Amino acid sequence: TDTVREAFIENAEEFAGRPKLYMIHTTLKGKGLISSPFNSDFNEHKKFLQSSLNKFGRRRSSLEINCLQTIRETLDEYRERIDSNFEYTNSQMRNNISRIASQNVLT
């Protein structure tokens, strides 16, 4: 526990931040909300994103409600297919994540 306390309390800045994910880091070059470190740039990006979403009338609660509704619809579709030896693949997972994102951000 002393080692953990030392790492997270006494040396918090060294252990803060996100893990470096090769694909995201290479694509975004450390920019954007999901890949930037927690610093002033991150705070600026976050404020910009929040204000931009608010201008379009998408506050957190309505976006969350719409995402949950789309997820429920997707789960209902899968429940209908369970009896027919349905196999869920990574490709289908990616497609559904894209579907959920596009239906709730672009609408």
Automatic annotation (TrEMBL):
Protein name, UniProt field: Cytochrome p450 14280
GO biological process, one term: xenobiotic metabolic process
InterPro entries assigned to the protein according to its UniProt record, in alphabetical order: Cyt_P450_sf, Cytochrome_P450_fam2
Upper lineage: Eukaryota, Metazoa, Spiralia, Gnathifera, Rotifera
Swiss-Prot/TrEMBL keywords: Iron, Metal-binding
GO molecular function, one term: oxidoreductase activity, acting on paired donors, with incorporation or reduction of molecular oxygen, reduced flavin or flavoprotein as one donor, and incorporation of one atom of oxygen
GO annotations of cellular component type: cytoplasm
Organism of this sequence: Brachionus plicatilis
Family affiliation: Belongs to the cytochrome P450 family.
